[in-house]
Structure formats: structure tokens, C-alpha cells
Amino acid sequence: MDDYILQMKNITKEFGSVRALSDVTFSVRRGEIHALVGENGAGKSTLMKILSGLYPAGSYTGELVLNGEVQHFTSIKDSEKKGIVIINQELGLIKTMDICENLFLGNEILKNGIIQWNEQMRVTRELLERVHLNIDPKTKIIDMGAGKQQLVEIAKALGKNARLLILDEPSRGGGQRFLHKLGDLLMRLNRDIGLTVLIAEQHLPFIRRVADRFCLLHCGRSVAQGDVIQLDAPLLAKWMTPDPAR
Question: Model pTM?
């Protein structure tokens, strides 16, 4: 029997008269890397915002099931309490702060009401080592490239004890060299600590390299699912070619 960490059932989301998602259903197995695939406008980011609680329960129809229990997230804090951490296209780091400050923002290590900077620096170094980022924890985010910033976001997610890590269009964070490094990191975390990863992405070589299974979205609908090996040219030609009637 499949062990699903996440099931999204019959998810429909509308913005006024526009239906962004229509009856979307897919499942993510515990301990896998799962790809949510589709062209721009397919509904990937909208689905991720529902999953993270940014679009709260009540603003959509359908069920979000985590570890076998229906969830009603009303904020990102709700989803993070359940072990879901999302890294959006627009990274959530405060650029004028350094890495350590960002990793502990709102979750400082305190003793008698005083921030324990030495302990926070120690933990930051450990988290940066886990994502293979050799950089001073006091480095300001504004002085880092987009790829390294994304690695800091992953380190921050690990610090929150993420059990389901979501990445929304990570290929926009850098070039081929960065994507190869990111892929290696995600596969290592998946292998070594059993981290489940959900990637919303349209960069097919990256998906084929790192993912185990996929769900293909087209015009807000889930139209195909299966093992990544099934994500072949005929399937993509059918569903990812722009429809001239649209």
C-alpha cells in the first residue's frame, strides 16, 4: 500500500470569473522527489500557494490531506507547523540582513530574553555545511547571487525541520551549473535524511534528472501522472504545446 505524505483531492480555485485550477488531484509518496510539471500559467504556483496556506482554506474547494489527515491551513505558519516549508520564486530573505539573522528571524535562540548569538552562529554554520555552502554566516544576503540565496533558503528550511520541502520554479535561480549543484543537493537530502521534495517546474532536463514521479498540469487541470520515465516527447507534445484556440 502506498504511503502518501500528501494528497490534494479535487482542488478548484477561482479568482472572480477566472478558474485557475479545476478539479486537480495528485499524490506525493513519502520519501520521494515529485515534480509538478506544466507551462507558464498551468496553475503550478497557485497550487503551491494553496498547499502552503498562502491561499487559505475556504478560498478554494477540495481537500488537502497531509499524513492521512485533512488540513485547513489559514497561513504559512500553519503549514510550517506541520513540516511543510515552501521556497517561492520570489525568495523570502531580508536582503539587508546577514545569513544568520535571516535563518533565525522570528525564531531566535533566547536565554533570559537575550539572543544567544554564538549559538545561532554555530547552528548557522552547521546548516550551511549541510547545503554545501562555504560562506561566512555574517555575509549579507544582498552580497550573494540568486543561486546561493536559494541554498540559504534550503538551509533555513532544514532549520525548521522540514519534512516536505517545496520549491517553486527553482530553475529561475541560476544557470546550468547551479541547477546541477541543486539537483545533487536535493537527491542527497532525499537519500540521507528521507526528505520528501515537491518541485513545481518546467525545466524538463532538471526534472528528468532528479524526480521520481510527476504530475502534469495543463490549463489548471491535472492531465497525466506517473513515473518520470513516462514523461516522454509524445505526452509533452500533447499537453505542453500552446493551444491556438486559447
Answer: 0.90
